[in-house]
Every structure is written in structure tokens, then in C-alpha cells.
Amino acid sequence: MLKTGVYQNLTVVSRKEHGVYLAENADAGKTERVLLPSKEVPEDTQIGEPLRVFIYRDSMDRLIATTTAPLITLGEVRLLKVKEVTAIGAFLDWGLPKDLLLPFAEMVSAADGKKLRLHPGDEILAALYLDKSGRLAATMKIYPYLRTDSPYIKDMHVSARIYQIEESFGAFAAVDDLYSGLIPRREMTGRERLGEVMTLRVTGVREDGKLDLSGREAAYKMMEEDSDNILSVIRDEYSGVLPFDDKASPEKIREVFGLSKAAFKRAVGKLYKERQIRLEEGQIFISDED
Fold this sequence. Notes:
Blueprint: E1 7-16, E2 19-23, E3 34-37, E4 50-57, E5 63-66, E6 77-86, E7 89-93, E8 100-103, E9 123-130, E10 136-139, E11 157-166, E12 170-175, E13 179-184, E14 197-205, E15 211-214, H1 219-237, E16 241-242, H2 250-257, H3 261-273, E17 277-280, E18 283-286
Parallel strand pairs: 13-15
Antiparallel strand pairs: 1-2, 1-4, 2-3, 4-5, 6-7, 6-9, 7-8, 9-10, 11-12, 11-14, 12-13, 14-15, 16-18, 17-18
């Protein structure tokens, strides 16, 4: 059976002026044969010889074989370049003569809820799948295609690309452009951007193999930096008096400091213990300022 999107080992069963026909065996009917164009046929190829080929559909929607290696195969996730953007979607360079369609419906949404605007030359993570009509297409919704067998363990640092941001969950990231990871909402700093490659810390490995990630170091390592940042913001932007304390909403704390509420409370506790700040009437005062 001929399969699109994957490599197959087929046999040369006939030769024509425009190329050779391949099939699983010499008795295969016409519908079970696929053309390998003349320019793709290796020199001195003989009838009965096996060839490893990739099968896809050409611009006339006909099955065609190629000995050229595509940049992506069925079910894989790869970084591909945008060649053209049209009303129906974007066309991606996947190393074959016919560009790969990324349908508009398979693009992810930006933080404002609108489809991410792509431009020629952009590089995006995409997976290759078969649409309902059996045609190969690309999708940026790669969550189901990412692997969960990474070699990473807690507190290791990894390189990850942000491929989707969901306000209620967090920022989804592809570690090494290959493994499934998530920056939970509580760990987000507000600096995450679609397509951005970040160095992150593994905070946990779930039972299903997916990775929990953070752009922050372990709490004890970050407390000093967070404390200095809080003092600087209160001094420089609020003239020494912050109009809220550690009982403020998580959203307010993240907006001002880019910290989770837990990290903010830890740092404030450290500053208070060191008597660098005072907590009075729902506000925070720098101790050396009146």
C-alpha cells in the first residue's frame, strides 16, 4: 500500500520515458504504482531494483515519489521557513518542489486572541499531518506531536521555544524543538513571546513525561535578586512608598514586578526581616526614606 508522508522501500516495476514506476511488488495494479520522475531516478537503475523513496502529492494532486529527503515527515515536528502568506494560509519550505500548506485554521493565536501574523522568512515550529482529504499539511498546533521521553530531570537547564500561550494554563514550550514542556501560569513573568527561544529550568517531570518549566532559578537562589529588584522599583518608580503590600492580587504583583505572588512574599519577608522595609497600612515603605 502506498503511503504519503513517509519513506517506503519500493521496487522498480516498469520504465517509461518520463520516469520509472514503483510498487510493493511486480504484480501491483496501476493504482498501486507511483511515478518517480526521470530527473530523480538514480543512474543505472534496473527493473526489479529496490529504491527508498518519499511519497507526496504534486501540484496536480497526483501521488509522486522522490528520492530527495524532505525536511519533515508525517508526525514529526520541525522548524520550517515561511515562503509565502495567502488568504488560505502560509506556504512553507519543506525541501520539496511543491511548498507545504499551513492552513489558516492551523495557525496558533497570539496573546490578543488573533491569529499569529506570519511573514515570508519567518521560522516556525510545525508538525506534518494528513488532512481529512488525505493531503499532507502543516499545523502549528504541535502539542499532540511533541515527544515525552526527554532525558531531562528536575533542576536541569534546557533550551525551549515558546509555541503557544494560553492565559489559563501558561506558555507551552518545545524543549530542543522536540519535547513537550509547559511554563505554568504561576511561573510566567510576562516576558514570554511566541517563537522566543528561552533558557529554562526544569521544575518537574510529570508522570506522562511532560516537563514543567520556569525561567526562574530555585527560590533560594532568586530571593536576593528579587529583593534587589523590589527595592529598586519602590525607590525609583514609587518614590520609596509602594501603594500595596504582599496581600495584593497576583495580577497586580506580576504587572509591577514580573513576579509570582509567592516569590514576591518571600522577597518582601526577607527585606522586612533585614529591616530594609516597613509594612504599614497596606503599603510598603523603604526604611531609610520618610
